[in-house]
């Protein structure tokens, strides 16, 4: 059973706290798998991983929340994905963990890559899930990826005005995220869980501001193509065929850009959704076990 969500202090962005959750009390004899969540979710995205006995036996499972997500907070109001990558590395240092694997869903995938770029001696391997290494480009749309500009811009406009203390993120916003991430077959129980979780995490004007910057980051992020040759560790990219956001064709092009990786492989998951760790946890968990045991 997973431990409760805690926070740990790091120096980045004027001083921050990073929300984190271990699957079990830390065991220094096991490798560590850091898990980075998708847009607007939290450590709770990884409930299926925390419940997997074989994965828990293989590694310490440590979910870390990005800036703008869950319980992570910074002194400064502005932040980018690079800031989260730095804060995650500082969180590992503060927790006394000197090396780790990183698994990331959607935006968590490009956090994993950034962490590998910034700390090649610390990151032993990365597992990006349902992701892209590009910005929101015409190239990616031509390869069948979504139009993130059209998806994000209306929300950015709506979130740009101050709100009162009684504000919570609209359920329509959450439903749009779940639709993109998990498709049409979201159970009512899962939908209710994420409605409640989002409205707890994004309440009042402070919650609005965090969600606004998170949405701006998603739409306006920098692409990583020219930097991918700096990733030296092994890469296992899992991409679902039913992913409504990023396409298999995009993944097939981008896995070839990890030219200096010790090993870069793409694995296609039939009928896998965008939030692959939640839609196909058995496949993801067994692949993670295999990857960690190979490269630990």
Describe the overall structure.
The protein is an alpha/beta fold and 296 residues long. The chain has one domain: Alpha/Beta hydrolase fold, catalytic domain (Rossmann fold, 3-Layer(aba) Sandwich), CATH 3.40.50. Helices cover 41% and strands 17% of the residues. It contains twelve helices and nine strands. Strands 1, 2, 3, 4, 5, 6, 7, 8 and 9 form a nine-stranded mixed sheet that branches. Helix 10 links the parallel strand 8 and strand 9. Helix 3 packs across helix 4 and helix 7 crosses helix 8. The longest helix has 17 residues. The radius of gyration is 18 Å and the shape is globular. The mean pLDDT is 97.
Q: Total number of β-strand segments?
A: 9
Q: Determine the N-to-C terminus distance.
A: 24 Å
Biggest sheet, open or closed, and with what strands and sense?
9 strands, mixed
Query: Class by helix and strand content?
Result: alpha/beta
- Shape, principal axes of CA atoms: globular
Strand content bin: 15-25%
**CATH architecture annotation name:** 3-Layer(aba) Sandwich
Helix amount: 40-55%
The CATH topology label is Rossmann fold
Round the Cα radius of gyration to an integer and report it.
18 Å
What layout of secondary structure does this protein have?
Blueprint: E1 6-10, E2 16-22, E3 32-36, H1 47-50, H2 53-58, E4 60-64, E5 73-74, H3 81-94, E6 100-105, H4 107-118, E7 123-129, H5 138-142, H6 148-158, H7 171-182, H8 188-201, H9 204-220, E8 235-240, H10 248-255, E9 264-269, H11 276-279, H12 281-295
Parallel strand pairs: 3-4, 3-6, 6-7, 7-8, 8-9
Antiparallel strand pairs: 1-2, 2-4, 2-5
Helix pairs in contact: 3-4, 6-9, 7-8
